[in-house]
Design brief:
It is built from eight helices and four strands. The chain is α+β, with helices and mostly antiparallel strands. The protein has a four-stranded antiparallel beta sheet with strand order 2-3-1-4, with helices on both faces. It binds adenosine-3',5'-cyclic-monophosphate. Adenosine-3',5'-cyclic-monophosphate (CMP) binds next to loops.
Length: 153
């Protein structure tokens, strides 16, 4: 099923000059960028985005990290985009992430694991609404859609 999902390339990805290489992995898989922005996020938005982790011991540190510098928010569209992006990212804890995944190839620390991806279609919908206004999301066709299964079904 064609889905949309939210990816964050976190401040460590921006600082480590990995934005292009990370974006390339999703694009090469066939996913379509339908929204893209660099944003130095306010604490309030970071706390709302990670509200599900509010009671976890790492919550404060996680929010501090997310607001520490600009990050790149990406809205991606494609067949099974939620599951595909989580597979591209690899396990949350980089030492458990398979080689070939973003975290398995490029990260070591759970707290600085380069990327976030929505964990379900429902979460994706609410996270996309949090990070993008309707005017920031673009619907368009690509000539390669018929080769990568990117046509809406
Ligand atoms: P993410 O996929 O963005 O979702 C929640 C984030 O919390 C996760 O990636 C990690 O960056 C972070 N996180 C999860 N567990 C821990 C932990 N034990 N210590 C620090 N950060 C964590």
């Amino acid at each position: 099923m064609t889905e949309r999902t939210l990816i964050l390339i976190k401040p460590d990805g921006v600082q480590r000059l990995l934005v292009g290489r990370i974006l390339e992995r999703y694009e090469q898989r066939g996913l379509k960028i339908v929204g893209l922005k660099l944003i130095h996020v306010q604490r309030d938005l970071a706390e709302r985005h990670y509200a599900v982790h509010r009671d976890k011991p790492f919550f404060g540190g996680l929010v501090d990290f997310i607001v520490s510098g600009p990050l790149v928010a990406v809205a991606l569209e494609g067949l099974n985009a939620v599951a595909v992006c989580r597979a591209i990212n690899g396990a949350t804890r980089p030492h458990e992430a398979a080689p070939g995944t973003i975290r398995g190839d490029l990260a070591l620390e759970t707290a600085q694991n380069l990327v976030h991806a929505s964990d379900s279609a429902e979460t994706a919908e609410s996270e996309l609404t949090l990070w993008f206004g309707p005017e920031d999301i673009h619907t368009y066709g690509r000539d390669i859609d018929r080769w990568v299964g990117g046509s809406p079904d």
